[in-house]
Design goal:
Number of domains: 1
Order of helices and strands: EEEHEHEE
CATH superfamily: RutC-like
CATH topology: 60s Ribosomal Protein L30, Chain: A
Helix content: 10-25%
Shape: globular
Distance between the termini: 36 Å
Strand order of the largest sheet: 1-2-3-6-4-5
Strand content: 15-25%
Radius of gyration: 15 Å
Length: about 140
């Protein structure tokens, strides 16, 4: 028998201004209790313009800066991420992803899934979604 869901459980949407997702009818993510669940972030600026066309590393860095922006909007940050899913347009970028992880994260690195996928538009080379703590810390 499962426990009933607490009536006070709330999923609070993350609001950004400007929000580049607004025209796509997608939420940035939600805070549920002490967890932050983000939508996949791609290499676009605050106004939805692609950053780093044809440059995987530039796109990867922009995508993680977008993750960071969404997390900071609710009082979290990259050091509270414990799970990421990284979608790449081509697995030939695998080694780039390894270097990217080292630039943006520290041990223990977040749990991670790496997937080759079609990313909505052909010029997109990477998308990153994340799950993080709102408060607290990752034990290192």
């Amino acid at each position: 028998m499962s426990e009933p869901v607490a009536e006070n459980t709330v999923a609070r949407a993350i609001a950004l201004d400007p929000d580049p997702f607004e025209n796509f009818y997608i939420s940035q993510g939600f805070v549920v209790g002490n967890l932050v669940f983000l939508s996949g972030q791609v290499a676009i600026d605050e106004h939805g313009k692609l950053v780093g066309e044809g440059d995987f590393d530039a796109q990867a860095d922009q995508a993680i800066r977008n993750v960071q922006r969404a997390l900071r909007a609710v009082g979290s940050d990259l050091d509270k991420i414990f799970k990421v899913t990284v979608y790449v347009a081509d697995m030939r970028y695998r080694e780039n992803v390894f270097r990217w992880r080292q630039r943006w994260f520290q041990k223990p690195y977040p749990a991670d899934t790496l997937v080759q996928a079609t990313l909505g538009r052909p010029e997109r080379l990477i998308e990153v979604d994340a799950t993080a703590l709102l408060r607290g810390r990752i034990e290192r």
